[in-house]
Design goal:
The chain contains six helices and eleven strands. The chain is elongated. A hairpin with a 2-residue loop joins β8 and β9. With about 260 residues, the chain is α+β, with helices and mostly antiparallel strands.
């Protein structure tokens, strides 16, 4: 997934674009100017790892982020993330396709034979040091739970097979950049699948006493340090990951763009 390619524009490509621009209507050119104006805004960032994105992938994603904000006053949503990521790899002739959500629940994209689960997080109260996966999966079986001793059985039969649907998990987080005035920051992190698989080690005694809606939770630790909280939300019949420490989740890349005019 990390092959590099020559990013220079050929003379023929430049002439083709110039000819296209000259043929545009006034309205069409106004739209193009919106994008060009956005490209002039300060944008900084860094590719931190090269086992998913190559440098030119990072640069292309930065351009697409800028283009997104040329036409939107909100941060990038999950569907935008999926679409742009698909094009990042398609443009490099890597076989990429949307996953069949009915066959592989939780999977979103397959890139070069590797199936990805993609998440986004952009809540106003986002805690920079901790990740929330608001819905890991649906869990109507919570209503069938009689007591916490039932939970390990449901985890084994319902939750663990869910993880077989994808190979890697990525989350795009967006929040106000505390180091740059009027900028929004995007972080691309990987959530190690092996870390979430530790849910399978939980015992009934690890869970808190369920509420009337059968909501309960348990902490998952690594070497004595809490990594995240696994929650059963009986009010919405879903499973949630809360307080996932970012120290366990490698930062692959980040971007910071002008947030002028942006809302959440």
């Amino acid at each position: 997934m990390t092959d590099n390619e020559d990013s220079r524009i050929s003379s023929s490509e430049f002439r083709s674009v110039r000819d296209t621009l000259e043929a545009l209507s006034s309205s069409q050119f106004d739209v193009i100017k919106l994008i060009l104006n956005r490209f002039e805004d300060e944008a900084v960032g860094e590719l931190c790892r090269d086992d998913f994105f190559a440098q030119d992938d990072w640069e292309y994603f930065a351009v697409r982020l800028a283009a997104h904000h040329a036409f939107s006053t909100t941060v990038m949503k999950k569907e935008n993330f999926e679409h742009i990521l698909e094009e990042v790899f398609t443009r490099k002739k890597i076989v990429t396709k949307r996953a069949d959500s009915m066959t592989h629940r939780g999977a979103d994209l397959t890139v070069g034979g590797i199936t990805l689960s993609l998440k986004t997080e952009a809540a106003k109260g986002l805690k920079h040091g901790y990740i929330t996966i608001s819905k890991l999966m649906e869990a109507a079986w919570i209503k069938q739970m009689e007591n916490v001793s039932d939970i390990p059985g449901f985890i084994a039969s319902k939750v663990m097979p869910h993880f077989d649907n994808y190979d890697r998990i990525y989350i795009m987080r967006s929040y106000v950049d505390g180091e740059r005035s009027a900028h929004v920051r995007y972080d691309l992190r990987e959530i190690p699948k092996d870390l979430l698989l530790r849910i399978g080690d939980l015992q009934g005694s690890d869970f808190k006493k369920p509420t009337k809606t059968k909501t309960t939770s348990a902490n998952v630790s690594v070497n004595g340090r809490r990594a995240f909280t696994f929650s059963l939300d009986g009010s919405d019949d879903k499973l949630t990951i809360r307080n996932l420490d970012i120290d366990f989740c490698p930062l692959h890349a980040w971007w910071s763009l002008s947030s002028e005019g942006l809302t959440r």
